[in-house]
Amino acid sequence: MTTTSRPLPVPDAGSAPYWAAAARHELAIARCARCDRFEIPPGATCSHCGTTEPDFRFERVSGLGVVRSWTVVYRASLLGFAGEVPYLLVDVELAEQTGLRMIGLLLEGPDTTLREGISVRVAFEDVGSGTAVPAFTLATGGSS
Where is coiled-coil annotated (predicted)? Predict the structure, then answer.
């Protein structure tokens, strides 16, 4: 297990299932009970169907996706990340639904050669206290 000085997530009632799944190294995304669409992050309303009673349920997803965009961070905006710069963040469209995107660290690091559409899969960083944070790694084969 790795320990870190960076801020750790503080789950609330709405995010607890997400973080519990991450601790088990599973990616679980909220799905609206009304329209059956995934939502990241879930809110008080569903951005797809507009219901104010989405009754989100968290479902395990494959964690497979493709890179849509990326950036290298050279200056940390939070003190806890200062020792980790530079690092590479990727904007990933998950395979389960067109437009379902999440941002995460690419574990291969900032020197990785990327292109739009390259395949990635979820990985998890154990950051202490039984907490894991979703990140991404290049998928075998490297393209979609």
Answer: none
| pLDDT tens digits in sequence order for the chain, 144 residues long | 455 678 889 999 999 999 999 999 999 999 999 999 999 999 999 999 999 999 999 999 999 999 999 999 999 888 888 889 999 999 999 999 999 999 999 999 999 999 999 999 999 999 988 899 999 999 975 444
Residue 73 shares a structural domain with residue 126: yes
Indicate whether 5 belongs to any domain. no
Residues 56/29, Cβ–Cβ less than 8 Å: no
Closest CA to 72 of 40, 101, 114, 41: 114
Same domain, 106 and 39: no
DSSP 34: T
Q: Which two tokens stand for residue 36?
A: 């059956």
Indicate if the alpha-carbon torsion angle 101, 135, 139, 67 is positive or negative: positive
Q: Is residue 53 helix, strand or coil?
A: coil
**pTM value > 0.70:** yes
The domain containing residue 42 runs over which residues? 12-61
> In the chain, how many domains are there?
2
